């Protein structure tokens, strides 16, 4: 098959994108040649993030293989992080605010006493060999509580991972009919055996944009790998055990602590721009049908810079052990010549934010 020219433009949201102003970051443009199917589309968010691709292809379907990031992180069994992670993250914001207010209050205490305003909490308390303000005995424990919550949640997650790896449940057999981004998804899920602890089973499908390869962004912007990183990217790590799987923006904060003997990790990382299709309960061996996302999204396509990814997510509730997920990548075609998603949903990239997994 002859190669064709493909134009790509991307301003992709980095990790914790709410702290970035999209318009202040450059749009990365690149032209490549490929024989793979390349749909025409524009995906935008209200914040100014953009992914655009143009080629001579119109309607069609991708026939290549999945990239390494899909094989490594978006296939098979996954666990759901402990809910305490998100609660502790919300709590630490208030703790930091209280700490800053307390420091400001202590700084102005001498002035308040000089003009006759009554103060409290400034009396010294001896702990060991040093004296501390009484207020510190209140504020410091408040700072430590969310940290201890995160430590406890990490140990709980590690224990769950090790227990899961010792007794991995049976893999499902999944049959999917040929599908496109504007039609219902029809298929069948079968388990050879169903453990007694399993409860309600739900299936859904979703689409999103996988993070571009760090090296591809640097190359498209005319930078070398050892030069100053592009806006939104962190400094390259001296060693990287997940080469080819990270985009260089999360730097370990995107997921809770993971067991060392799990390739790609046990927690499913969210796609930072994505949309959810239909969801429904299902029974083993029986057909299911899911509606597409509200807006028509482009079909499956993969390159180093632009990667549109579709996946099926099975969620299984377990009595006393927490839910588990089975993730199955999908090849989805595009039945329209060009798609334009105007209000794509944005996710900050943290694994514990499971806004698109049904309860």
Describe this structure in words.
This protein is an alpha+beta fold and 359 residues long. It folds into two domains: 255 residues, Immunoglobulin-like (Sandwich), CATH 2.60.40; 80 residues, no CATH class. It is built from four helices and 19 strands. Strands 5, 11, 12, 14, 15, 16 and 19 form a seven-stranded antiparallel sheet that branches. A hairpin with a 2-residue loop joins strand 6 and strand 7. Helix 2 runs antiparallel to helix 3. The radius of gyration is 24 Å and the shape is globular. The C terminus is likely disordered.
Provide a short characterization of the protein structure.
The protein is of the alpha+beta class and 359 residues long. It has two domains: 4-81 and 170-346, Immunoglobulin-like (Sandwich), CATH 2.60.40.640; 85-164, no CATH class.
Characteristic key phrases:
single chain; 359 residues; alpha+beta; Immunoglobulin-like; 2 domains; seven-stranded antiparallel beta sheet; five-stranded mixed beta sheet; 4 helices; 19 strands; globular; disordered C terminus
What count of helical segments does DSSP give?
Answer: 4
Q: Quick one: biggest sheet?
A: 7 strands, antiparallel
Distance between the termini: 45 Å
Unreliable stretches (pLDDT < 50, length at least 5) are: 355-359
Question: Approximately what portion of the residues adopt beta-strand conformation?
Answer: 25-35%
- The helix/strand series, from N terminus to C terminus, equals EEEEHEHEEHEEEEHEEEEEEEE
CATH third-level topology of the largest domain: Immunoglobulin-like
The top-level CATH class of the largest domain is: Mainly Beta
Structural domains: how many: 2
Query: How much helical structure, as a percent, in the residues?
Result: 10-25%
Total strand segments: 19
Q: What is the CA-atom radius of gyration, in angstroms?
A: 24 Å
Question: What would the average pLDDT be, to the nearest integer?
Answer: 85
Structural class: alpha+beta
**Second CATH tier, the architecture of the largest domain:** Sandwich
